[in-house]
Amino acid sequence: MTEIPSARGAEVGRRIGVGLMYGLWKPRVLGSWRVPATGPVIYAVNHAHNIDGPMVMGVAPRPTHFLIKKEAFVGPLGRFLTGIGQLKVDRHSTDRTAIARALGVLENGGVLGIFPEGTRGEGDFASLRAGLAYFAVRSGAPIVPVAVLGSTDRPGRLIKALPPLRSRVDVVFGDPFDAGDGSGRRTRKALDEATERIQKQLTAHLENARRLTGR
């Protein structure tokens, strides 16, 4: 039987995230009311900064279980991430354990966080992996697009790929949407079509978030 990540641990992670993110930066959260209050939800988060996951974990209205690359689960940090309900995933193989645990989160009515671009990059949703479509179509959970927008090109950065300390970071939640076409099909063609629909929705949300925030 697959062990489901701790919901209580994810709530502890959310509280820690609140303290860290508001202590080190100045988050401005827009649209969090759009997140369904109950039931399974998938956050699709753009990934341009190293703080994107912790930032969303801290400011989101519900505790979140993120799929995080297994390379981060080393030593004390690995035990900490597991303790706060985060999911270790091998990005270079079909990680059936991670898939089962992620689906378990959704089946239990929880929130799954995914970086659909796979790795940190431009954060523009230009290249999506099919994993997001699979989880959305398989579970039927709505996707909530999340744009994390902060400055990485300004002076004052102590660490590469982090916004300057005490700078404003905008987190914009979009309207939930369904990835599937209503047929319930999970064929390769259906997932490809779902990925295309998702990419259009996420790109539109990011453009809207940039207009809204002036980023």
Automatic annotation (TrEMBL):
Keywords, sorted A to Z: Acyltransferase, Transferase
Keyword Acyltransferase: yes
Entry keyword Transmembrane helix: no
InterPro entries per the UniProt record, alphabetical: Plipid/glycerol_acylTrfase
MF GO annotations: 1-acylglycerol-3-phosphate O-acyltransferase activity
SUPFAM superfamilies: Glycerol-3-phosphate (1)-acyltransferase
Record-annotated Phospholipid/glycerol acyltransferase domain positions: 41-151
Protein name per UniProt: Lysophospholipid acyltransferase family protein
UniProt organism field: Streptomyces rochei
High-level lineage: Bacteria, Bacillati, Actinomycetota, Actinomycetes, Kitasatosporales
